[in-house]
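Students often ask why inverse folding is considered easier than folding. One informal answer: many sequences map to the same fold, so there is more than one right answer. In these notes we will look at a single instance of the problem. The structure comes first.
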């Protein structure tokens, strides 16, 4: 299996300070179609189990998506 990701962030002006408000992670996985069920299960829970994401979530919205590539 091969994994790459593209992470984007959105900032907004809060007074005179730029503040990170949203992060989106898009994963590209090289995997077999029969692995999709496991990938979906892991994708559905990984943000809630990630220490960094859990630390950021109170202040920053985090979203994720993925695609399987051959």
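Output (designed amino acids):
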């Amino acid at each position: 299996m091969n994994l790459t990701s593209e992470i984007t962030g959105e900032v907004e002006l809060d007074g005179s300070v730029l503040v990170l408000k949203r992060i989106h992670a898009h994963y590209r996985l090289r995997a077999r179609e029969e692995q999709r069920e496991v990938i979906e299960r892991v994708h559905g829970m990984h943000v809630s189990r990630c220490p960094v994401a859990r630390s950021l979530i109170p202040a920053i919205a985090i979203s994720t998506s993925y695609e399987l590539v051959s």
